[in-house]
Specification:
Shape: elongated
Radius of gyration: 19 Å
Order of helices and strands: HHEEHEEEHEHEEHHH
Number of strands: 8
Helix content: 40-55%
């Protein structure tokens, strides 16, 4: 295979999932077009666009509390910033006020988005493998790769069938499955592909967002 063909294949591995725009859309859907940042245990992840919006509202995810943007500070995270995302926290002694907004839907919709992202990544890696070769045969048809991709497809199907994402056990199950799926997609795509595209960044983003909203609220 020529150098040009390798470059073209590596370019094809670029997975253009715009996490920042998707997070903007998710937030608008959940909060009726209002620029809202959901805070959980003092932490949040959002897009730069939302954070810099003059009318942004910061609300707590599990209590009727609202924070001021001046109560917050950003924490450096290079990989998230590459995708126009920011991570931050609010002061422990920040003043709060009653809010009627609920963030439960935000967490549920966030999980649905993550499932959608891995579905798209799975399809993208499948197409990518068709253009790669192992021992003069298509990588997509190699027995090891075939078995790996089949297992990933099965796991994606399982988490896609979970209806009750309000249930904490279901949320944690989906999160752990997502981590495993992305790790195996990276393995299936191969070492060189890890140097381009968004699979590794997706993994970092999942862990940052889920640590805030679904796990221990730490980054």
């Amino acid at each position: 295979m020529s150098t040009q063909q390798l470059i073209e294949l590596d370019n094809a591995m670029l997975l253009n999932l715009n996490f920042s725009l998707n997070l903007n859309e998710l937030t608008r859907r959940c909060f009726e077009l209002r620029p809202v940042i959901v805070v959980n245990n003092g932490w949040f992840v959002t897009s730069k666009n939302i954070y810099c919006n003059e009318g942004v509202i910061l609300i707590d995810s599990y209590s009727p509390s609202q924070y001021q943007l001046s109560d917050s500070e950003l924490v450096s995270n290079f990989l998230l910033e590459q995708d126009e995302l920011v991570v931050g926290r609010v002061a422990h002694d920040a003043q709060t006020s009653t809010s009627s907004l609920s963030a439960e839907r935000f967490v549920i919709e966030l999980l649905k988005y993550e499932i959608l992202w891995v579905k798209r990544a799975f399809e993208h890696v499948g197409e990518y493998l068709k253009g790669r070769s192992i021992e003069s045969a298509s990588a997509a048809k190699h027995p090891v790769i075939t078995q790996l991709m089949a297992g990933i497809a099965q796991d994606i199907y399982v988490i896609s069938q979970i209806d009750d994402l309000k249930d904490k056990k279901n949320q944690h199950f989906v999160v752990e499955e997502l981590y495993g799926i992305v790790s195996r997609l990276i393995k299936a795509a191969g070492g060189r592909s890890m140097l381009c595209g968004n699979l590794v960044q997706m993994n970092v983003m999942f862990k940052a967002i889920n640590n805030v909203y679904l796990e221990e609220a730490s980054v």
